[in-house]
Design goal:
- The chain has about 375 residues and is of the alpha/beta class.
- Helices cover about 40% and strands about 15% of the residues.
- The protein has 13 helices and twelve strands.
- A seven-stranded mixed β-sheet has the order 2-8-7-6-5-3-4, sandwiched between helices.
- α1 runs antiparallel to α8, α2 runs parallel beside α8 and α9 (about 260-275) packs parallel to α13 (about 355-375).
- The two termini are about 35 Å apart.
- The model has no long low-confidence stretch (mean pLDDT about 95).
- The structure holds pyridoxal-5'-phosphate (PLP).
- Pyridoxal-5'-phosphate (PLP) binds near residues 71, 150 and 177.
């Protein structure tokens, strides 16, 4: 039996989402650029889907652009901001614990004339707005800060950073990677005054291969990501992935219909899991993440790669830090400055609407047995 406890890596697609996608693939399969009714129906469907997601995000549909994933949205946001602020300067502020979809493009930019300041989290995994204030300069062109850290579940002060930039009359643009925060914690780019915000479909019950970027209407002539046939208002060409778009919108619709209930359920699962797993001798919590769906723990001396493969073989899916790092110690764990044996044993358990107490009980039993049958490293 499968016990899926890795919802921060990706989520299962509910049947209604798969059905919405199947309808598009088999019936409403027209190209939205085509002039005949089948094409125009596909165009209307895309518009409806954009409106659903925009409403959930609290923005105008015109401010929301579909992309192929959160990574694409992050890359586009950075390049759009640097282009928009090209006369402001070449200094960028971000955190040391962003997803690699931010850190890798910034690494390339740092090799090409940009200066990047990386804000370090404290031992609980948090970043303070005062750190942004200290790092902010006249030539800061971009501040990129995630809403929820994908490994610790810490919520970052995005709203406060937007306020700070206003108070300081900074010309820096603010990008927020909200891939882990959207529909999990309060997220209001328009109300907060965020300029760019990245989303991803497969973290909220949608399919993989679809993301979105919010670009504030304050941007005049944002830099196109993909010049070509002119889709997405001329900014991101390529025939629209209509089935993926329909799946993303359906998933958002489903989550929004029971949003508080889903958040409360994830929080209850997290609380239950924390209590149960911390009763295992020597297990510790890592960081103090408040997001309802992510719990980071460590079994000092028991390498997380072994835990993940041992439990995986029993059908229990969880991750060692971020699933993207495949065995390498994650930069987030490194940034927390944990003792070596603790850092080596960090695991991330993450929850969704489908998670049950039985999933957590199975994880608890398997971890207890893992600890009994393995010797800890020195
Ligand atoms: N940003 C964060 C915080 C993430 O957790 C992820 C995926 O794990 C991404 C960006 C990348 O999203 P995608 O997998 O849609 O490219």
């Amino acid at each position: 039996m499968l016990h899926y406890l890795d919802h921060a890596a990706t989520t299962p697609v509910p049947p209604a989402v798969a059905q919405a996608m199947l309808d598009v693939l088999t019936n409403q399969f027209g190209n939205p650029s085509a002039q005949y009714p089948l094409g125009q129906e596909a165009k209307a469907l895309t518009d409806r889907c954009r409106a659903v997601i925009a409403e959930a995000l609290g923005c105008h549909p015109k401010e929301l652009y579909f992309t192929s994933c959160g990574t694409e949205s992050d890359n586009w946001a950075i390049h759009a901001a640097l282009w928009q602020g090209r006369h402001v300067g070449r200094h960028i502020i971000t955190t040391a614990v962003e997803h690699s979809a931010i850190l890798e493009p910034l690494r390339f930019l740092a090799q090409n004339g940009y200066e990047v300041t990386y804000l370090k989290p404290d031992t609980t995994g948090h970043i303070r707005v005062e750190q942004v204030a200290e790092a902010l300069r006249e030539d800061t062109v971009l501040v990129s800060m995630m809403l929820v850290n994908n490994e610790t579940g810490c919520i970052f002060p995005v709203k406060e950073t937007a306020q700070l930039l206003r108070e300081k009359k900074s010309r820096a643009l603010l990008h927020c990677d909200a891939v882990q925060g959207f529909l999990k914690v309060p997220c209001d780019p328009v109300g907060w005054g965020v300029d760019l915000m990245s989303l991803s479909g497969h973290k909220v019950g949608g399919p993989k291969g679809i993301g979105a970027l919010y670009i504030s209407e304050k941007f005049r002539n944002p830099r196109p990501l993909l010049p070509g046939g002119g889709q997405e208002n001329g900014l991101r060409s390529g025939t629209e992935a209509t089935a993926q778009i329909a799946g993303f919108a359906k998933a958002v619709e489903l989550r929004c219909a029971h949003l508080q209930e889903t958040i409360d359920h994830m929080q209850a699962m997290k609380d239950y899991c924390r209590e149960k797993l911390l009763s295992i001798d020597t297990m510790v919590e890592v960081g103090k993440g408040q997001a309802p769906h992510i719990l980071s723990l460590a079994l000092p001396g028991y390498p997380s790669a072994n835990i993940v493969s041992d439990l995986g073989a029993q059908g229990i899916c969880l991750s060692a830090g971020s699933a993207c790092h495949r065995g390498k110690q994650s930069h987030v764990v490194t940034a927390l400055g944990l003792p070596k044996r603790t850092a080596a044993g960090v695991i991330r358990v993450s929850f969704g609407p489908e998670t049950t107490r039985e999933d957590i009980d199975a994880l608890y039993e398997a971890l207890r047995l893992h600890k009994e049958k393995r010797f800890p490293m020195l």
